[in-house]
Write a structure and sequence with these properties.
By secondary structure, this protein is α/β, with parallel strands linked by helices. The chain folds into 3 domains: 58-77 and 95-167, no CATH class; 178-221, no CATH class; 225-330, no CATH class. The protein has 11 helices and 9 strands. Helix 9 (269-277) links the parallel strand 7 and strand 8 (281-285). Helix 5 (181-191) packs parallel to helix 7.
């Protein structure tokens, strides 16, 4: 009887060892090749003024806490996007809000009060009226002693149509800021006018409701929301160790905080390869996920990534980060 128990225990132990070996070998990046020679770069809002993230809240006026300007560009403008691409951005992200005449203005904040010389929201104005607004009015790096961009931002707020016409072949990540499903439907209406090839160069992310509404109208569009992220990552965390790829992880986009990545099966290269085969783009963002706008903005930030990381990197300072990888290519 004792002998049988010993045999049973030894078999159980062997099964556990084999299972652990399988999990390790099936999820180690040791045998996985990088998906590209160097990471690809996403320029958040083009190239704009950066600011302190300390104690930041949803309603914090970030224009009032910018660092001393090192360049003349304001976020979400044609010029900021142009210089981002020139510096080496592979994709530029921008934000959209609906206007009074059912267009989309490229602007980040929920209200106009912080950055501009007018108050209210974009829906209070037509696109033509928003062209007269000074989007550089509220920026200050010294607690209001000086306003270096005041008077320089008039006419710089572009429309969605302007951006897509100005950059007919460039890829973009569009952030729909509203949680209103009707705005998702309206954005789908505008994007449906584009060719299928052009649509394939665009990704849309935002609140669950507008993204679901847009996806219903444009089922082939690559989209992302908290709901789509959860529908992919929760089952992946549960069974991804087997190599199984949940259907919700196909043809989507994932923003993975740097501190969460190491907890995902196969991070980094095995995970990136699995998602790449599923036509899903993985973008690493800074921090722990408390602020998905946190990026890799200095050479020291890049050192926090795995040495062989080959996915996408979110940055607010494409001018600083792109040269690090261009140098590698040279």
């Amino acid at each position: 009887m004792m002998r049988l128990k010993k045999i049973a225990k030894s078999k159980t132990f062997l099964v556990i060892i084999v299972l652990l070996a399988f999990i390790y070998l099936n999820n180690t990046s040791m045998f996985s090749k990088p998906i590209s020679e160097t990471p690809k770069l996403l320029a958040h809002r083009g190239l704009g003024q950066t600011f302190s993230m300390e104690n930041i809240q949803n309603d914090t006026c970030t224009a009032e806490r910018i660092y001393k300007p090192e360049h003349p560009y304001l976020e979400n403008t044609l010029a900021s996007m142009e210089v981002a691409f020139q510096n080496g951005a592979d994709v530029v992200e921008f934000d959209v809000h609906e206007t009074k005449d059912r267009q989309f203005a490229i602007f980040h904040d929920w209200t106009l009060d912080c950055r501009t010389n007018v108050q209210g929201v974009t829906k209070d104005y037509t696109m033509a009226e928003l062209k007269k607004v000074d989007i550089g009015y509220g920026y200050t790096a010294d607690n209001g002693k000086t306003y270096p961009f005041r008077g320089k931002g008039i006419g710089l707020m572009p429309s969605l149509t302007e951006v897509l016409d100005h950059f007919p072949n460039k890829p973009f990540l569009i952030d729909i800021k509203s949680s209103d499903p009707k705005e998702g439907e309206l954005l789908a209406y505008h994007l449906a006018k584009l060719s299928l090839e052009r649509q394939s160069q665009l990704t849309v992310y935002g609140g669950d409701e507008p993204i679901a509404a847009l996806k219903e109208k444009l089922p082939d569009m690559r989209v992302m929301s908290k709901a789509t992220m959860k529908s992919c990552l929760i089952p992946y965390i549960a069974v991804g160790w087997t190599g199984y790829m949940p259907q919700a992880c196909h043809n989507t986009q994932l923003h993975i905080p740097e501190k969460i990545g190491p907890w995902l099966w196969g991070w980094p290269n095995k995970f990136l390869n699995r998602m790449d085969q599923a036509n899903t783009r993985v973008i690493v963002v800074g921090g722990d996920g408390s602020d998905f706008s946190s990026g890799f903005d200095t050479p020291d930030d890049i050192k926090r990534l795995p040495a062989d990381y080959s996915g996408w990197i979110w940055t607010n300072r494409i001018d600083r980060i792109a040269p690090l990888y261009k140098k590698d290519k040279d």
